Amino acid sequence: MEKIISIKNLNYTYPESKSPAIKDVSLDIYKNEWLSIVGKNGSGKSTLTKLIDGLIEADSGTIEIAGQVINDNNIWEARTKIGIIFQNPDHQFVGATVEDDVAFGLENQGVPREKMVDEVDQALSLVKMSDFKKRDPQSLSGGQKQRVAIAGVLATKPQIIIMDESTSMLDPDGRKTVLDLVEELRRQQDLTIISITHDIEETELSQRIVVLSDGQIVKDDKPINIYDIGPDLTKYGLEEPFSSELMSTLRDSIKLPDGYLNEEELMKLLWKLH
């Protein structure tokens, strides 16, 4: 697998703090991977993403993006490879219409107007929001706003998308729509997704979960192995999956296999046993 981000021995302490927010973190993230980063508030999730995006500078250690070690001379070029979708899409809106908003990042990159129009149309088409391009972003539903925010990120052609709790304000249907869309785009556009989340359903889409605690990586494994932790997941800011809770309850009366099963797998097994 090809690495898209390689982090080595990263350390960072906020100026006003006595203890480090990130302690000697090393992590490789791969091209086209969906990686979930989880942990309780204060575990270092947001700090790590700020370091990756160059919003703050590490005290020590290195970050390599697409084969290039990041420094003061190339940080702006590196940031063009990354797009961030925030928790509240309203904080990203700057345009009077949906198309103006999607064009904002392209304007900052100095893209000629003719090309910009095509790129905006293409990005809106990808998120199925072409019919809304003349609308005021504030008139949209939460899920529609988030899709416009995704279009604004896609228009700039990033290789990496960071989702910073970006489905936490949506209802279950809106969350599923956005997550399914991001997964489809990951496959189509060969994107790498880094998801900062507390949502167990969101982590189920990832190939790997990294658990942070007190600025350090305490777990780095496939979702199925992380979910095996069971009730102790709450220590790391994640709810135990419903199917895992149900299996714990049923084990007193039914013989069930060891290890994690998702809801669909558990349903099939219970149907067979029935």
Tag the structure with descriptive keywords.
10 helices, 21% strand, alpha/beta, 274 residues
Order of helices and strands: EEEHEEHEHHHEHEHEEHHH
Number of helices: 10
Strand order of the largest sheet: 6-7-8-3-9-10
Largest β sheet strand count, sense and barrel closure: 6 strands, mixed
Distance between the termini: 43 Å
Concise synopsis of the structure shown:
The chain has 274 residues and is α/β, with parallel strands linked by helices. It has helices at 45-52, 75-79, 98-108, 113-126, 142-155, 172-189, 200-203, 223-227, 242-250, 263-273, and strands spanning 3-12, 22-30, 34-38, 60-65, 68-69, 82-85, 160-164, 192-196, 208-213, 216-221. Strand 9 (208-213) and strand 10 form a beta hairpin.
Description:
- This protein is α/β, with parallel strands linked by helices and 274 residues long.
- It has two domains: 3-240, Rossmann fold (3-Layer(aba) Sandwich), CATH 3.40.50; 241-274, no CATH class.
- The protein is 36% helix and 21% strand.
- It has ten helices and ten strands.
- It has helices at 45-52, 75-79, 98-108, 113-126, 142-155, 172-189, 200-203, 223-227, 242-250, 263-273, and strands spanning 3-12, 22-30, 34-38, 60-65, 68-69, 82-85, 160-164, 192-196, 208-213, 216-221.
- The mean pLDDT is 88.
